[in-house]
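Sample 3 of the quickstart, ligand zinc ion:
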Amino acid sequence: MSSCDKCGKPAKVNLHYNATALCEPCFCAQFEARVRQANKDFKMLRLGDRVAVGVSGGKDSGAMLNVLAKMAPAIRGLELLPVTIDEGIDSYRLPSIKCAQELCNSLGLPLATYRFSDHFKAMDDIIALRNRKKAKKGSPSKNRRSCTYCGIFRRALLDRAARELDADKLAIGHNADDVAQTFLMNLLRRDEGKWESFSPSSGGYGGFIPRIKPLIYNPEAESPQYCKFKDIPFYECKCPYSSESFRGEAKRFLNSVEEKFPGSKFNLLQSYLSLQGKVEGGDKKPGRATKCGKCGMPSSGKECMACMLLGELNG
Ligand code: SF4
Ligand code: ZN
Ligand code: ZN
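Result:
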């Protein structure tokens, strides 16, 4: 067994992207230090903040909540308000919500649950409806992917939850891989105008709740390891609709590049961070606050994306 590159004790983890070996305490300390560094670099948490924290029961959000709870005592008045979204995906979401609940119980934090079915429709019903509409000529729902509905409705519901909990900001567990994937996807789709919306500390424009990504420097592969070392329960199953996702393709591509050229994902992330704001449209911010005429939530047009999608499904 190799020894830890930091303290010389027996190593438990090998990090291929920078060819280092770490023992359990040094690995956990590095994982937590990256979150602190992101907080410092992007000025994420402030004294007295009420922070809604999106927790799914997965590895990333579990690790994030645990680190934020450790950081909280040093940030006077910081309050963490965990929120979970039940999308209504049978056999997939309930076990993960159980993990989120267990973690919140162990940290002594109340977990608020928001359900798609109470505000929109359950994802399983949405997909059944979309599939029926696929047969209809000219139906706008025809080419919509599952993740489009899920992402837009989840974003809208997290925003609503943060607002109802009177939170100043919303923390989400997007890790370094997620941000690198989103950057690549936006390049492939020429969505330069969306760069602002996935930046490490974004929003607060146009009436939207500011979003922070404390795990921006943490590679995805390290979250499960951190959770295991810290006894954080998490659910690992794959969503039954994930095969439809564009993100899945971007992820497979980046993972294969990373395997041959270690460090590529971090390099892509760094390229995004240094290009942010330098490319025309890259720092475009949503316009002035407009309220959706249907649901009253912030929107860049007369109708928010969630209401537009719901209208299509019901039409
Ligand atoms: Fe939702 Fe797509 Fe994620 Fe499944 S894979 S939970 S449909 S965003
Ligand atoms: Zn060590
Ligand atoms: Zn709306």
